[in-house]
Specification:
The chain has 391 residues and is an alpha/beta fold. It has 18 helices and 9 strands. The chain has 2 domains: 313 residues, Alpha-Beta Barrel (TIM Barrel), CATH 3.20.20.140; 45 residues, no CATH class.
Length: 391
């Protein structure tokens, strides 16, 4: 009896080890693309560099990218509307990404085409790409859009929370409504979308208002992405996508890259987060007085009180719920990952930084996703859209 019990225990132990090795093997062999990471902004606000050891300081650094199996990272080029010269500021961030590449040629490389992406993965170097988060950074000049493309920018989020003169944001369409001078894309906005299609620069509909979204869908000739958005039905935040929008992106051949931010995943999080912000308002005001961008000031306050912030983070399962919802609604070909790391104060429990991406593969496997489907979600779907826009 004891002998058989020992055999049974050994069998289950081997099965557990084999299962652990399976998800790690799937994760390692897949091409993992994260379509949105705000480290360029974080590096300025926190005065740190991507090639330093930043565990405990940021969500990301080059070593932890490798540890987490990240093959392709699209860095967000971002500044808020308070910047007086947004085009110059954006170029400063582009300079930073290029400098990281120059300093670390054996560990990362700048990628502009699918062929370069494939080569970088084969050489086990991080494929560094860039996306401009906010059309205000072209300063209403199509020639600036062209210059961004030449420098390696491969998507542009048409608006951030602020509207431009040619496109309205989700924030403004929700809060300003009838007081806006226009809603959606103007004729100039449609010209920008058309020019992006001509260049091969992907149109990103995260952050845009609903009218802007539908104007994009009716204008673009190429597949779009939502680089970092989640599901409105599960968490009714203005930054999330409603069912008809998800279906429209799928019909367009695009991809929704699920955002890891707790406030876009868990409908109960915002109230808890606001209570913490009120509690530590003097610390927030102190940071704001030093001209730190408001979003980063809030993140820093959260980091100062990590235990309290960790207590209100939702479980990892909620991220999988958003992925499941999109898959069930339109299919596995239209969902990906857009972490928003280093641009958020809280992701689901367990996702403390880029080193934790393998936990998502493990969770997908546990939910019954096939190896083929996991490879699509981790990066295959984005690569398809990347090719469709450039060729």
């Amino acid at each position: 009896m004891i002998r058989w019990l020992f055999i049974l225990i050994s069998f289950f132990s081997i099965a557990i080890v084999a299962d652990a090795q399976r998800y790690k093997r799937i994760h390692t062999n897949a091409i993992l693309v994260d379509t949105h990471n705000d480290f360029p902004s974080a590096s300025i606000e926190k005065k740190v560099s991507f090639d330093a050891d930043l565990l405990g300081t940021t969500h990301s650094d080059i070593a932890r990218m490798r540890q987490g199996g990240v093959d392709v990272q699209i860095f967000s080029i971002f500044c808020g509307p308070e910047q007086q010269q947004p085009y110059l500021f954006a170029n400063r961030e582009i300079d930073s990404v290029i400098e990281w590449v120059k300093r670390n040629p054996n560990r990362m490389t700048q990628v502009r085409t699918p062929g370069e992406l494939k080569r970088a993965v084969k050489e086990k170097r991080l494929a560094a790409m860039m996306g401009v988060e906010g059309g205000h950074m072209i300063e209403d000049k199509i020639e600036n859009l062209d210059k961004f493309f030449v420098r390696g920018v491969r998507y542009m989020t048409l608006t951030w929370n602020n509207s431009t003169d040619w496109a309205t944001s989700a924030a403004d369409e929700t809060t300003k409504k009838d007081s806006l001078p226009h809603k959606g894309l103007t004729d100039f906005g449609k010209k920008i979308v058309a020019r992006m299609n001509e260049l091969g620069m992907i149109v990103d509909v995260s952050h845009v208002g609903e009218q802007t979204f539908w104007d994009v869908i009716n204008t673009t000739t190429k597949p779009v992405i939502a680089s970092h958005s989640s599901v409105w039905t599960l968490c009714p935040h203005r930054r999330n996508l409603k069912d008809d929008q998800i279906k429209a992106i799928a019909k367009n051949g695009g991809v929704i890259h699920v955002n890891f931010y707790a406030g876009f995943l868990d409908s109960t999080y915002q109230k808890k987060s606001t209570a913490l912000e009120i509690k530590y308002k003097p610390e927030l005001d102190s940071l704001l007085s030093k001209n730190i961008q408001p979003d980063y000031a809030r993140m820093m306050v959260g980091e100062m009180h990590r235990d309290e912030l960790d207590a209100i983070r939702p479980p990892l399962s909620i991220l999988l719920d958003h992925i499941d919802y999109i898959v069930k609604l339109v299919g596995v070909d239209y969902v990906g990952l857009g972490s928003d790391f280093d641009g958020i104060e809280a992701a689901p429990s367990g996702l403390n930084g880029v080193q934790d991406f393998p936990l998502i593969t493990k969770a997908l496997l546990e939910r019954g996703y096939s190896k083929k489907d996991i490879r699509k979600i981790l990066g295959g779907n984005f690569i398809r859209v990347f090719k469709a826009n450039l060729y």
